[in-house]
Fold each of these.
Amino acid sequence: MGRTPDLKRKRPISNSNSPSLTDSERVLYDLIKSKQDMGIWTRDMKRETNLQDHVVTKSLKSLQAKKLIKEVVNVQNKLKKHYLAVEFEPSKELTGGAWYVEGNLDTEFIKQLKELCSRHVFKMKVATTDGITESIRRSGVINVECTTQQIAEILRVLVLDNDIMEVRSTEVGEFASIPLGTVCYKCSGKGGPTGVSKTGAMVSIPCGVCPRISECTPDGIISPRTCLYFTKWLDF
Amino acid sequence: MVAQYGIKLAVSIISSHFGDLVAKVCECLLRKGTLSLGDLVRYNQLQSNQVKNCLLVLIQHNCVQAFSVQKDGAFGEAPKVVTQYTVLFGNILHRLRFSKFMAIVSKEFDKECEELLEALLQHGRLTLEQILQRAQSISKQNDWSNAVQDALRESFVKLVNARYVERCPDPEPFMAPPDEEDAPKRSAKAAKLAKKTAQTLEQRAVAAAVPLESKRFAIMIDTGTDVGGEETPSQSLGEKRKYRELEMDRETMVNISEKEVLWRANFEAFIRRLRHKACVVNVRARLDDGAGTVLNAMLEATKKAESKVKTENSVPLSMDTILEEVMKSEEGRTMTLERVRGALSQLGCHSSTRVAEDSYSVDLRSIIESAQNEEVESIIMKRYGGDAYRIFRLLSKTDRLVETDNISDTTFVEKKETVKILYNLWKENFLHMERITSHGSKQSEFLLWKVNKNSVWENTFDEMCHAALNLSQRMAYELEKEHEILQLPREKRVGQRFERIRKVKTLLESSLMKLDDGLMLFHDF
């Protein structure tokens, strides 16, 4: 919605720049611009404009050279080249959102943020999302501005990793300063920020993680009597 | 229906305890369901009295329950009553955990009680007279005085009062055919509901065989003083001893009851205690020691009030009672009121879930569920790694269908990698997948994923049975291999080889016990 006035203002400017465009370039340019921040895939361009392959390729090159359009990586499919008019920033659907850099998941950044968040939760014992965001902001460890939304996403992943626990404030004891019912986070289990992984009954024996368990039978070629994993496990 | 490896495990237990013939009959019952003696003879191609003896062994050890049903006769013949035999899968698996049952009794009572229980576990069913005879035959002391006998009787009463020993069930309850005239009157909806909640014939038979609560733990014993029988007022009659006749009656009745009433270990009570323990262990690890101590105290105080194994919530207790119970234990003595309140709130007893004013009850079902989740999640973690662990936890927590891209965004796993992991988990039956095709839009196919807990839990139980079977087979193999040196007299059992087999045995045994905790978690709790 907010973009419409923007568009109207820009159109005359770009029009004034355009006399040097060929017909096919003009058609393509208008099409690309009409797609706004979603951009358009080369194959779709060819279909919609009915232009021949080599014409499209040539025109795209020249439009790029004139700095009217740009190429972006589509996170859904890196082989699909998408083109956008220069005045637009690629949409979240194309880039994958704040966590993606050039179509790849920014794992390094995520890892850093995760460590930072779990350290803060550990330090604060019990904390709300806002509290953690504020604490990270004040500590000034990272130079990028992180929104509360981003921190919330990181916290959710930490919960899935079982590094921290999601609990609701009861206003009793450690929750005294937090209003009733507010979602809070605390470290799970007895471990520190890294957490101790609990060992289940199955995973502490070879069969629990055995890749051949489905082929293992009492009298088969693979059997508990002849099992090498067992032999290794029982090697004293 | 029992899982494939569940059957194999049960058969291997029976085979190692009672031999192959009994195991054959047992396997037939496990695979084909309830059968009559005639059917069993036919399927197994054994002689009738062989099968009969096998069944007697299985009944003696509480692994089979008989019941009779009325079958329509052939044309012109009157309907006849047929005896059916149904196998009790759960009770067979309980044989793995006898040592755990004994440990409970030895901790709560004393050595005498443990020996009494051992007798019952070894022999399945015994009368009090038989128990006493057995004790006499193994007692090394020469004095088999009345005092010793009375002490034994007293121990026995203790076990019965604690519900750890019960009267044996009815040997052959008669199951009346369902009232057919009643059926059509009910609406279709009600009938459907009834079908859903209705127990199978076997379940009804097992339930019908259990003596009434008042009779199940009723005991008459002549030890000079009157003991037991809290619930049976008829026994207190003897207390006054005003009338000679009554006295005489009592003596004869005691005599008869000692000779004729069969007793057995009450597996249900033991499993209930083990379930409590599993809850406390889980809470201790997941929350903290304080919460574990408080839960333990609450369950300890109400252990007699629970009547079934899978209780949803603990028996409600007031704050005063909880405090009193907490202070009984060593680690609870240091806890303040504030600390106990905090622990209760950690356990999920806040004002909203209070049953009544100032009474607290813990949701045991949810504790068991999180223990089950943890076990499955640990398997995923070890087999498929951290990303898969995160994805599985997401799906298990949301408990509805989630689309691939959505999963990838929430868990911070690259799209391609996400698809790969999801596919692997689906292939191994950890996930359920649905395809949705939309026409006209750019992307035509979406994949939706979900954790189907029931089937995943069933598979996990089956895999655990497989693993337990493997552990016991490997154990048998290792012992067989070192057969020679294990035959040596004690003083010669030294050296590296012996040291190794000792370690192997310990590791395999302890792993099997730990795995058995898992079996109970998924089958009994």
Amino acid sequence: MKYSSQMVAKPYFIFALVLLAGEVLFGLILGTQYVAGDFLFPEIPFNVARMVHTNLLIVLILFGFMGATYYLVPEESERELWSPWLAKITFWVFAFAGVATILGYLLVPYATLTEITYNNILPTMGREFLEQPTITKIGIVIVALAFILNIGMTVLKGRKTVITVVLLTGLLGLAVFFLFAFYVPDNLVLDKFFWWYVVHLWVEGVWELILGAILAFVLIKVTGVDREHIDKWLYLIIAMTLISGIVGTGHHFFYIGTPGYWLWIGSIASAVEPLPFFLMILYAFAMEKQRRIDHDNKIALTWAKGTAIIAFLGAGVLGFLHTLAPVNYFTHGTQLTAAHGHLSFFGAYIMILFTIISYAMPIMRGRLHGNGVKAQAVERRSFWMMVIGMLGISLALVIAGTMQVFIQRVGVDALGFMETQAEIVPVYVVRLGFGLLTLLGLLTYFYSFFVKEEGVK
Amino acid sequence: MSERITKNMARNIYFGGGVFAILVFAGLTMDTVGQVPKLSKSENITESVAHGKHLWEKNNCVGCHTIMGEGAYYAPELANVFERRGGGNEESFKAYMKSWMASQPMDVPNRRKMPQFNLSDKEVDDISNFLIWTSKIDDNEWPPNIEG
């Protein structure tokens, strides 16, 4: 570690991992409720567990992004962080707001939560993924501003690299598009339309810039490939991301009351969306092949390659599977969407966090060449358990979604929703099994932190 | 492939392409915002419909149900529930909704459970009006059949 202020990243990473454990745990509760509808009712109804599951995911990714940024920006800028103190304060503010919000979901009925947080003054609650009380949303904006100020000042005063500029652009976009979370018109169609400005333009837009920047940083560090070369790839990948991803928002505007031209525009633009992810695979493997150093931290590179592959499968392949309007007509709002969501979030955003954590954590713990051989072997096992677990979950959901289409939406004697779901229960059991494997993988990953061994010399 | 492209070219593709995409998307957004009132028959958004939408949000209905295909996939689609459960008749749909909401949670072992939300008759009517309005949005003939 070159700059002492990089250390502020550590609590961010640890907290992100703790939240990830909670996220997976609530995923298992949801998976169980798909099999046994009574499970934990009325203590934790499905909608509450789902809010906790998805909100933990979002918050943990934000913590991970912040940790990654605090770690890599001083090193890229070749100077200490503008204000390590501010980074520590925002950690506690954000952690407190996050925990309080999750407890709010769990402890009182949602309608009560809207009342005690004065949602009626500026109603923003009760929309998918944006369920946070308005006051939490305001808190997120304040934390984001403090964070961007801190990072922006560091970048401006230091060496500017392609990685930091792309990262900062992504973070600014993240903050700007979040502002649409405060716009809730009475017209459901407009509400949905601009809701996607947050959701889609985050995950299929600006977050990919952040992902690209983190991946580029780790690849430079573990392969030693010339920065100029990495930069060129980074530009090409994020160019494809923005060109396809921004207009590709249109694949959400097929059947929500928006004009018919989106059927064409959304289909064509989003058909290109797998391309940047495919480029990312070529890039990760090409950089490995052209590497100039043999870094002892092998597992970080494994995570980097895994990120590229699983993100391509989840976001690229599973996304493309149902992104064309005539196909989406039948698959819209089925478990196929859930399949795509699970694998793309895991592949793109959880795995990139594992990548940077795998690279940075050992250094912050004084192991400059990565963890020892034994710890890396444990981590490698956890890698495969989680990857196979998530692939299994997603494949099961693809099957569930396909069954749903053919039982409920095609043919003359279509069954109703609840009857269809009853038919799919065996598949949900399989999904739950792979969920358990994923949890086991995560626990193995945690264990790898405690494997005793001297760092590799 | 990448050998023929210089870093400057890549950067120009990024900035040029990014700005182009943003402009196209902004233009289409403006057109869409202009067309939505007609497609959604926004003149029919009464105070009751707006309040129904607010109640829909306040009780996190989208945490289990989908509406026009968006939401959670744990409970039935509700954008066309007016046709499916009310047969397109407002009076019978409102009566159905009141008895349905009152009978939750149903005491059927192992069945997915809908919580009791303790809404007044007026509030249930508002939600019904919101769902009736929603069912009339021009959403390119989605869903494929009445089952949603």
